[in-house]
Automatic annotation (TrEMBL):
InterPro entries given in the database record: AB_hydrolase_1 (IPR000073), AB_hydrolase_fold (IPR029058), Carboxylesterase_BioH (IPR050228)
Any Pfam family: Abhydrolase_1
Domain AB hydrolase-1 per the UniProt entry, residue ranges: 29-262
Protein name: AB hydrolase-1 domain-containing protein
Length: 289
């Protein structure tokens, strides 16, 4: 069973936004949140293994396939995705949930966790780009500025020019290394372009990488597993180090040979690490009488 073999359901949020999702399994809720330029199909090989233990929901963020929601505009931020995640969890009665999130989906999950920690049983995060944390060091601040000027600004210009291929080439290469986009198989490249609107929303955002309070992160007592690729960029590695130093209940796994796209590069390693972590957690406490 893969995510593509499960019938897709659609949830219409109060704001009129539609979220497509698949659901399988029973038990404690577990929500998969994909990163930029992906959609719910990103988790296609993970649904069945996790559904053996959990009630799994994998959904597409609002500007990812197969959605035809209103054009992104200039107001979308990861906090928008956090609000959508909250609405999804409320509508499907998923809280408290384990949340497994990749890249910018992890920023949305963290933003919501800071607002509603009681809605989370745990977090599994694959390199959430909380980029303002990089400014804790001179090296990190320099790398962050270079990333915004060398990757984000050209991508935004390409989208304005109506050239999503150029935009996505710059973004993919900026996150995963030069030449990655052109080296993708045709099917994978087509899927990236199918989800270009998701990235267009992000690069046009007034706050693409929101500042999350260091004090609030240090007070976030949600069991958290952080997955970091050994071949990720120096900027993402520095951000992960800063985040791990702040979170009070964190375990780290370094995934050998993986880039920022950990769940695609090493799906079995990520799955095994996540399941070991999740199944090792204490059962939820019984409600007080």
């Amino acid at each position: 069973m893969t995510a593509s073999e499960i019938p897709t359901s659609r949830l219409v949020l109060p704001a009129g936004v539609t979220l497509a999702y698949v659901e399988a399994g029973a038990g404690e809720p577990l929500v998969f949140v994909h990163g930029g330029g992906k959609d719910l199909r990103y988790w296609r090989q993970q649904v069945a293994p996790f559904a053996e233990h959990f009630r799994v929901v994998a959904y597409s963020r609002r500007h990812a396939a197969p959605h035809l929601n209103a054009p992104p505009g200039d107001a979308h931020t990861p906090r928008t995705d956090a609000d959508d995640l909250r609405a999804l969890m409320d509508a499907l009665d998923l809280a408290p949930a384990h949340v497994v999130a990749g890249s910018i989906g992890g920023v949305a999950a963290l933003a919501l966790a800071l607002e509603r920690p009681h809605a989370f049983r745990s977090l599994v995060l694959a390199e959430p780009p909380v980029l303002p944390l990089a400014d804790a060091t001179e090296e990190g601040a320099t790398l962050r500025r270079a990333f915004l000027s060398d990757v984000f600004a050209p991508a935004a210009a390409a989208f304005r020019d109506g050239d999503p291929t150029r935009a996505m080439r710059g973004i993919i290469d900026g996150f995963l290394g030069a030449g990655t986009f052109d080296g993708l198989p045709d099917r994978a490249r087509a899927r990236v372009l199918q989800n270009a609107r998701d990235w267009e929303a992000h690069v046009r955002s007034p706050e693409p990488f929101p500042t999350l309070s260091r004090d609030a992160l240090a007070a976030l007592r949600i069991p958290t597993l952080m997955l970091t690729g050994t071949r990720t960029t120096r900027l993402h590695a520095l951000v992960d180090d800063q985040l791990a130093a702040l979170l009070p209940d964190v375990r780290r796994v370094r995934v050998e040979g993986a880039t920022h796209d950990l769940w695609a590069d090493a799906p079995d390693v990520c799955r095994d690490a996540a399941l070991e972590f999740l199944l090792g957690l204490s059962p939820p406490s019984a409600p007080a009488p």
